[in-house]
Fold:
Amino acid sequence: MGQHDKFDAIIAGAGHNGLTTACYLAKAGLKVLVVEKNDWIGGASVSRSLHDGWTYSNCSYVCSLLRREIVRDLELPRFGLQVIPYEGGASFTPDGDYFAYYSDHDALRREMFRHSPADVDAYERFSQTVIRQCRFIRPFLLRNAPDPSSLRPRDLNELLFLLKKAHGLGARELGETLRFWTMSIGDFLDEHFESDLIKAHIAGAGIIGTGLGVYSPGTAYVLLHHYMGDVDGSIGAWGFARGGMGAIANALGACLEEAGGTIVTGSGVDEFLVKDGRITGVALENGDTYEAPIVASNMDVKRTFLEHTEEKHLPEDFTRAVKRFKIRGSSGKLNIALDALPEFPAAPKGAPFLRGDMHCSQSLNELERAYDDWKEGRWSQQPYFDMLIPSQIDPTMAPPGKHMMTVFVQYAPYDLEVNGIRSGENWNDETRKQFADCVFDKIEIAMPDIRKHVLHAEIRTPWDIENEVGLTEGNIFQGELTFDQLLFNRPVPGYSQYRTPIDGMYLVGSSAHPGGGVMAAPGANAAREILRNVGKGNLMPSHAA
Amino acid sequence: MTVSATYDVLVIGGGHNGLTAAATLAKKGKSVCVIEKSEQLGGMAREVAHLLYNLHPKVVRELGLKGLADGKPLATVSLVEDGKHVEIAGDTVRFADGTTHPDAVAYVELTSRLKKFAALLGQLSSHSPPKLDGGLTSLATLGELAGLAKLGLNLKLLGKKDMNEFLRVILTNAYDLVLDEMPDGPLAGALCADAVRGNYVGPRSPGTVFNLMYRLGQGGEAYLPKGGMEAVVCAFESAARTAGAEVRTGQGVKRILVEDDKATGVELEDGTHIAARTVMASTGPQAVMQMAGVEHFDVEAARRIRNTRCKGTVAKLSLVLKDAPSIVGLSREQMRSRFLIAPSAAVVERSFNPAKYNELPAAPVIEAVILTPSDPDLAAKGQHILSLNVQHIPHTPEGGWDEAKRQQVIDTVVAQLEVYMPGVSASIERADLLTPADIEELTGAPGGHWHHAEMGVDQILTVRPVNGLAHYGFAVQGLYLCGASAHPGGDVTGLPGRNSAIQLLKDGVLS
Structure:
């Protein structure tokens, strides 16, 4: 392959969305090239062996949102993807107790009863509402967001679909839906539950990845964003991809290879090449150029247009809108190799919830205060974390007898404040260590002897995630999930349907509708749009069409 | 039990909305009686409000309220410690010393955009909110949707660019919207302060752009009414009385009488029964449910009503001063302004933080106005009254209110004032503080909340105050909600009272 090869389509970035688009296009017969700046593929859906024998899923760590239609279309299980559900989780308290969340309904009722009898009934109402909202939203994930300012038949059709679904809810539920979509997860939980611990346990899903607090309006929707997935048809369930989250990218990569696509790693896009308002190809950092009439960017909208596209090719309004698009770094990660499974003094030996998501947050107020710290440019003094030890279920993650633990931490600012100056540069080995210490102190609530089991730990701040993965500010969703940036507003009003102001150029990452998480829906939706535009819409497999 | 009289309509609560409802119905020839538990009419309009900015022109016209918001609107001065205060007078934005402000253009561009959107939303404010009860395809609902369709059409008429912008910002937060246009400072602080006023939010909370638009509904100009809010209340009262409504004060309602799921009158605290064909209440939804009896509400409705968000956050502080106050850097003429202590958007957000945990703020956002230049009669000769709305004071701080905590609020505010008005503390002759808890006690407003119910996007329009009860009619036949907790919401607008009266007539419960 020469360095000036021509392709039908080039995808910039081998994240799960870029690979998904590439797979669909290649399967439809296009000659596809994926270029990736890192030496490995996956973007934030990645697993790497940072130490011999250990697999670090050092960005995303659990799987649920990946659309099953896409899994079927691309036959990912045939390429090694296997998702193993986990069966619960727990929140530990400093006084040696815990609240365990069991996926077994009766066990969960008994556990809730132990904390608050009233919350048992409350949970029925809560889960009914959430499931109803999940059912409402799921059909929209693999469709275009209608553009309300457009009168094109397709947009009107999408709008009609939305109205039809809304009508199907019935009047009362429509009102409840309007409320649910606009309220805070804190208020929503306060309406239902009385136990602080139960509320804190559930609330995490309403803030993960966002720059919002549990009492910020709109966070109930964020909870939905984390509940609308499924594992093997069980809505809201989460699981581990065997071999780490990289298994998803690897399966997509294998699928692409079989379909005849090409992946080039080790050099990222330096510039998207544009001539007379049309995309012509990409120039890589290593000097190579590739030509194609279709180029899709898996990078976030800011990185794509503010860093790798010449401003003169873009309308002024568009550039302004991209500049004000909010991508806020709010979370960090600790990836920890353990020499043995730590002690959990509170939990019965071998309790199933130890194999799920574990937390140490005690109340909604504690979570809200964690947010207040972040607003001022500090990491949370009492951070929220979502902590799992996948090696208990998936032995490929660590050497025998040893364990791999992943701790997603919120909030950690991108631009850390030190002596009145806020800057990403303030993240250094010193501040990184202080941040990790703060998290370890809190992990000790659940595992008092955690520190003595640590063999090595990788501390990832938003700054690090940006620098390595390429996500602006290390934001896991490639853009805040607030209403000004959802549906037809994502990423920019008027450009919500994967197209950009440049002919032939598309946006296929999580900056596009329906947003972030390892869902692959933006990638699949964008592929559908691309194929339609080249007159091959009929080659889109039926599940995601 | 004595039955004193039979009215077509009994209105519980003589706040400005109750009086508006009474006047509107009395003008249609209905026999109306307003019952107010305290000796004075006016409720929050008298006790808490100190400026007029959202009074609806339809209410002014229909009730014949004249001369309330005439004359020149007040300029707003956003105070800064270094003395470079910013003066906003309509579309003129400059430093208080008259020099050009670098962000003046951005400010005017932003506010005129918001005012345009506010006017659009305003179309929904003078009717009942769209009703979706019949499902989206029934004929009845289609009629209701016509209002929304008109809004949609007008939205389209704005053009694609403005329509997109409207749909982008409508649910978003003021902090980002403002800081996208200008650097953080007193101008951004002023916008953010107005975006959170009365609500339990900080400027970073999504939904605050809607709050800002609500405030800008009538253009946003604030007026210091001649004769103070007292005169405003008197005007509403005389409109009701002139129209033929009876007004009784000093009589509290113990319960609303319901027979066969129909409201039939009220029982006063002294045991007197007053019969009526319909009852309207301007108190909050919880209180109305309690008065009518929870048994008349279905379980879901009762649960929703109990969950109404109404955490009051505004305290009112009146300072009687023996010297005319002055602010460093402002002329005598500029002292007739609305002062904001909100030097940046970040400060406004920080002001809100403690309230979330029922703690007292260290540096609350303050809106202050000197009442006496326009109304020398309000105070004894030579005295001056500085009226302050202190934002983000919790309804009940941890451990409850006591003298020390009340003094702490006063001291915090005075210390803030001292920065801009050196020597003001020595001039204070009296300080009267109304905490949100006091306001609730005094006026019956739920949670002492400025708007009776939080103006969150989850509590407006079709879901205000709660889903299923947004059309003023309140579960029991002939029982209506006519206060700020009903659509469109709080501020001295007169609209909830007017709209509910019109809905009552439309429902035909009196025919």
Remarks:
- Residues 55 and 493 of chain B are 4 Å apart (CA to CA).
- Chain B has three domains: 3-67+228-307+454-507, 104-215, 314-443.
